[in-house]
Amino acid sequence: MSTTSSPQGGSSPSHKEEINWQLPPIWQPIEIFFLPHPQYHSVAGPCIAHLFYGSGPLKKCERHFVALMTAAHHDCLFLHDLHEREFEREGGQFHWLSGLKHMQNPCEKKYHTLDKFIHLISHQPWRVNGEVLKNVIREEDDVIWSLNQLVHAANIVAVTNALCAMVHGLGQIEPMSATQNELNRRTLRAEWNAKELRKSVHNKEVDYLVSRMASLRKIRRDDTESEEVEEEDPVPPATPTEESMAPFFSLTDGDENDSQNAQAHAYTVQSPLAYRDFACRDDPAKTYKIHEFDWDHAFNMINDVDPISADLFDKRFELMQNLTYNTMGDYNNIDTSEYRLAIWNYIHALFGIRHDDYEYQKVNELLSRQMKTFVKTCVCYPERMTEELRNHVMPDFTSSERIHALLIIIEARCQANLLYFTRALNNYYVILNQDQKERRRHN
């Protein structure tokens, strides 16, 4: 496979690389949920395959160990089992599976520095900055992680955090292959359960959503027509402040006490940490204004190091922001864009990312409290997901639509991770330039 050299060390794949587009059978229990949405499967599958099995600066066993470190934070047994098996299959050192405390060789200390990054990005990503990355990359004057390696690891962490949300959102997934007949029966069972639940609770959520989305489109059309006949320049809407955004950063109640599952203790030496509502944070992080560092900026930074991953991530995000079948429950020919955008922007808001051009009251108008609780649990503390919450959210939706919503959830979560990482990487470059100027001045 052809690669391009990087001045930071390691290698990055070129656009001409032949990617193995197929994931190994061990991924089947989760990959099967991509199949109802073939367009998504066509980009998500290759993205995962490239990160874990394609060419890259990290050894294949190391990639699975990074995913193990990440999955442990969310008590994701399916992914823990998957990556543990793949780590062993790819020739990983057995003692690594006993945890970081058993990894004391000089070549293994890099995972101790990566530990804090995974710890923060998995629970409170707004705390990841240039100084955090500097401490990951360097230990005193020793370069522990090349830039290529760090970007590769960060991409794996983002995807694994997202997959943890999906696994917990779906429910128990056994780490075994299933036959097509079993999968068909599982789908039919899920459809029947959804219909029975719909009958029992007499839920009218879809009826309300269809009506509300139609009202929002009418308001938007009326506003557009008013602007066309307006002679004077309209007064621009006030930019939302952090105080006015607080209700949307904390739209659901939750236990924010620091906690950590026992499994994570083996793969981190950090103090226990959990997600906290962004508006209630006790750190100096400011609201992330998307117009100051958007996905285009993040894409360019990843593209400089790994153009294949950057392209696949870009396709994933663009697809999930636009994919629609124009259906909702028993309704056809429905414009669902407002609903899909409400989910996406709500997730960004949970992590302190603000879109100034978005009217956040739409979140409360379109997402029920139960849906917001489900979304927040998926992306902020997926290990707290309950069977009751899974069974009673989106009762009027078909199984395919529920999976579609979950795919939107995990892609918004993944993008939030990458936005914070690449912004921190940009900040690291600034720190690096300042340090170099300081050294030249003293020489």
Automatic annotation (TrEMBL):
<dbReference type="GO" id="GO:0005737">
    <property type="term" value="C:cytoplasm"/>
</dbReference>
<dbReference type="GO" id="GO:0070728">
    <property type="term" value="F:L-leucine binding"/>
</dbReference>
<dbReference type="GO" id="GO:1904262">
    <property type="term" value="P:negative regulation of TORC1 signaling"/>
</dbReference>
<feature type="compositionally biased region" description="Acidic residues">
    <location>
        <begin position="224"/>
        <end position="234"/>
    </location>
</feature>
<dbReference type="GO" id="GO:0005634">
    <property type="term" value="C:nucleus"/>
</dbReference>
<dbReference type="InterPro" id="IPR006730">
    <property type="entry name" value="Sestrin"/>
</dbReference>
<dbReference type="GO" id="GO:0071233">
    <property type="term" value="P:cellular response to L-leucine"/>
</dbReference>
<dbReference type="GO" id="GO:1990253">
    <property type="term" value="P:cellular response to leucine starvation"/>
</dbReference>
<keyword id="KW-0963">Cytoplasm</keyword>
<dbReference type="Pfam" id="PF04636">
    <property type="entry name" value="PA26"/>
</dbReference>
<dbReference type="GO" id="GO:0016239">
    <property type="term" value="P:positive regulation of macroautophagy"/>
</dbReference>
<feature type="region of interest" description="Disordered">
    <location>
        <begin position="220"/>
        <end position="261"/>
    </location>
</feature>
<dbReference type="InterPro" id="IPR029032">
    <property type="entry name" value="AhpD-like"/>
</dbReference>
<dbReference type="GO" id="GO:1901031">
    <property type="term" value="P:regulation of response to reactive oxygen species"/>
</dbReference>
<protein>
    <submittedName>
        <fullName>Uncharacterized protein</fullName>
    </submittedName>
</protein>
<comment type="similarity">
    <text>Belongs to the sestrin family.</text>
</comment>
<dbReference type="GO" id="GO:0016684">
    <property type="term" value="F:oxidoreductase activity, acting on peroxide as acceptor"/>
</dbReference>
